[in-house]
Amino acid sequence: ATQSEELRVAIVDGQKLIDLDIERGSRALKKSNIYKGIVTRIEPSLEAAFVNYGTERHGFLPFKEISPQYFKESTQNRPRIQDVIEEGQEIIVQVTKEERGNKGAALSSYLSLAGRYIVLMPNNPDGGGVSRRVEGEERNEFRDHISNLDIPEGMSVIGRTAGVGSSLEELQWDLNYLKQLWTAIEEASQGQSGAFLIYQEGNLVIRAIRDYFHPDIGEILIDTQEIYDQATQFMNHVMPNYVDRVKLYEDEVSLFSRFQIEHQIESAFSREVRLPSGGAIVIDHTEALVSIDVNSSRATKGSDIEHTAFNTNIEAAEEVAKQLRLRDLGGLVVIDFIDMESQKNQREVESRFREALHHDRARVQTGKISRFGLLELSR
User: Bigger pLDDT: 13 or 335?
Assistant: First the structure.
């Protein structure tokens, strides 16, 4: 759904909000964009170079992120940055971290192009592997598939979580698309000199389709013609069998209001989130961690204390997993569940929480509920 200042993508199951991404037009993100840059300054003390890549503030390129393809001839075993590159040198870079405060963006000359199922690293033969979120037998099977791909010399491939269960044909198709993209990037970079944007990762809708779409998704509703055209073009190019799932929404009632999503989005910005049984979770940010407190609505007295605590904690576990995604909470998170006597109930809450985290595309590591009722996780 689009508003004048922002683009919003909601992943919905029925009328239940699963995930949310917002892109504000005033601050287009540069992460993953690829630029032709010019080295403006070399700082041996920092083991880094500063690169003008066409924006107001120059980017920061650490020595370890400079591919040897840009090195001048050097016979030393451990070359120094000032000996292998020079000011004025042109270099193709990718933004790995956005500008923050007074700091310029972090750059790398080891490029990565994300596809539907895999990531192609066109100038890094040693970067291959499988996403850390893929485990066990699935990981071995995925690795076998990747080893059978026709990967050009000097390149490597990383398997994305979305690629689990994909056929060799689907993976090869994705790789062919990324190879075409890389050829286009190379040609564009040679076409002109100076610092300029070569490749933009794509707007939020394209990224969302690439990352979230799977055959179980019934339809993709878009409320503006321009974004609809971009999405159908992308689907025709990447997943032509499913292009009919993309639909233009033209109703007078706004898209998010029609599906009761608006009030769910509001909850992602409030400190307290209500639970169905009347309890609530309270989310607070501190320097060290994010704390989430689970509160019951009822006075927990008498024989139903355990029952009330268990039910509230189950609801909280599912809501916390959802809020982690909606708010994109990272780092250390500590959840203070309502105390439960029963070990069985504690294990059930942990299990339900891990199940609810299944939708999360970030890497989440969870502990167990401690004797104080606390559960720690890292995201």
Answer: 335
Q: Do 214 and 253 reside in the same domain of the chain?
A: yes
For tokens 């922002």, the residue is 6
Distance CA 281, CA 283 (A): 7
Tell whether 311 and 360 lie within a shared domain. yes
Angle between helices 305-327 and 343-356 (to 10 degrees): 20
pLDDT digits (tens, 9 = 90+) for 313-368: 999 999 999 999 888 888 899 999 999 988 999 999 999 999 998 878 777 889 99
Lowest mean pLDDT among 22-36, 37-51, 219-233, 330-344: 22-36
CA 228 to chain centre: 22
Residues 303 and 369 in one domain: yes
Distance CA(57)–CA(50), nearest Å, equals 10
235-274 burial, b if ≥16 CB within 10 A, otherwise e?
Answer: beebbeebbebbeebeeeeebbebbebeebeebbeeeebe
Q: Rounded to 5 degrees, what are φ and ψ at 38?
A: -125, 130
> Whole-angstrom Cα distance, residue 162 to residue 205?
17
Cα(364)–Cα(366) distance, integer angstroms: 6
Summarize pLDDT for 162-177 with one digit per residue, the tens: 888 888 998 998 999 8
